[in-house]
Design a protein that fits this description.
mainly alpha; single chain; two-stranded antiparallel sheet; elongated; 4 strands; 678 residues; two-stranded antiparallel ribbon
Length: 678
Amino acid sequence: ASLHLLRAYSVEPHGTRRLPASFAAIPFDSIRTALKDRPRNLALLSRHAVAKLRKAAASTKSFTPMEQEAVLGAAAVLSRLLPVLFEQEHEHKFVENVFWYGKLPPSSKAGTAEQDEQDALALPLLESCIALLFKPGFTCSSVEEKTTGWYGSLAKSTTSGRSRQFDQARTEMLRLLLVCCSRILFITPEEYRKSENPFLSYLSTRPKEEASALFRSLTAVIFSYDPVGLGIPYSSAVMADKREPVVDVAVQLLIILLDYNIPSNLGKQGNSAGVTTEKMLDTVKTEANAPNTSNCFRNAVREWKEEEEFEFVFNGFCRLLNNPHQANSTILPSSMKQISCFQELLILFWKLIDENKNFLSYILRAGDINELVVPMLYFMYEGRKDPSKIGLIHICTFILLLLSGERNFCVNLNASFHKKLPVDLPPFTGNHADLLYIVIHKLMTDGPHKLDTLYDCFLTTMSNVSPYIKTFCMPAALRATNLFEMFSKKSKLLSNEQYPRYLVFTLEVFNNVIQYQYEGNPHFIYQILRRKKVFAELSEIMEGTGIDEILNKEAPQAQEGEPPRFKPTAEWVRSWATDLPVQPCLRLMQHLLPQLEQFCMTGNVNDEGIVVDFLKTTTMVGLLPVPHPILIRKYQQNDFTSLWFTTYIWGVIYLRNQQPQLFDASYIRLFTISYVDA
């Protein structure tokens, strides 16, 4: 019966986006019923499917069409069974017993409790999958690709017809590996931190050559993909994109392989804060890659150093990540193919720049990093409207924070911004730093409350780039000073223990502009001077004038039934008020305000443009305090952010595998699934 079932569930010989009908024809509930009533039959079916893959992997002959169909059918059946078997693995231990210990369940409920001992299935399954991914005539062209990766050379990867013939087989085998790793979806975060995923542990400890070949193969498939092709309007509506499925599953598998930490390595990064402060020297010091880990795929990334391949991958990122906003900017509606894997691509970009400092150095030195800044800011700006995109905003924010710790990145933001984005941005003429400031301001003033936890990262990024920006336009300068004014309001400053820290960040932005980029920023200087009253109120707090009276007047009172609110004290106010870095701004006002007031009174000036032109003629040379060293706060990963990344990755994978449904939401325990009205 099991063999008959296996034959019935073979795949159809075509490469459409949808999985074969036979895959979805195995209902989840039918598998659960079999697991409950006939677990031995289910174990035998699994054993037959693995045996089919094992025999195919060991064969030295080319597959006939019927043999290839049978192999893909076995992979499809296992891809359907395993997610259901993982759902309640903590109770029945079916996968552990059958796949890892080779124990067959009793033949019936009335049978003996003793289980048959057979060969374990897990290792043959994983070894067969990897072998079949490099099977000449099935997933690759020649046996040499087992060491060099698909296409032979990463930088010369193409989407020729010669490679497309393997896409269906690659898709099925990669999906099966992805499913093998998916048990994490059905355990809680606490269980994940304490337990090992044996499938992922095995894959992440493969030999160096094998890991390198698979890394290069997956990377080649992803970045040789061109969703637009010749650019013919509506071509994707006429012809199915047979390339997209293998790209989707390749990037999903690659990010989970790069993300995995064997439990013995979890928690070693400590619980330090997310950012650390360093003095940034004028010279750029290239950081060495971290020492090798127990994850062979991370090691493969760290040992990757060919600049020709860096260029190929970077160009691929630019092409794919710019696709969504380009597809929404066409004159003819929906005329351009739009990819869906942009979140996975952003995660992969994060992994590559975090693990390989040579790649990061190359793209900042030889590439146009603004080609990636623009799509990230687009995703952030648009994502604020969609509760399901909170994770997308987080990953973009973390990437920008990491990049802002690099001098070359900050300098590159001075390039003029000319693109037209399909969003309601205020009109401005400026550079990419202006776009960055405008988007961050929008997220902080018109974003959901769930973004409050990112304020620290937003403001740190603004502070990091500010010493290197030669000119800010008026809209960007206005928004930066509006944030300062927002955090300076006594009602807010004394109601949230984080606001003084946010205020320091905005003052650091001002100080950096005044001390390092004064000549090119009359718009910014003008906006600072306009906040004379705000600085006067801050000075009162710093001097301790009437602090107790201010606290009694401004401190928020908790309403009945609400949890107790933060209650400021005079000691708390003094702990930060005396250290606010306001001296450069106060010195600026002391010197320029009298000149500006005299100029306006004498010339009866009431036009901002004339005032800005006057400020261009002024100087602060010799009048400011000794310039402070440029401080760059760099992102530092810890075990909490690592867990967040893992949860986010699997959340994306769950959402992206709904048609047909690969995982049943009712059994997922790693995160909570909320349904929002469209």
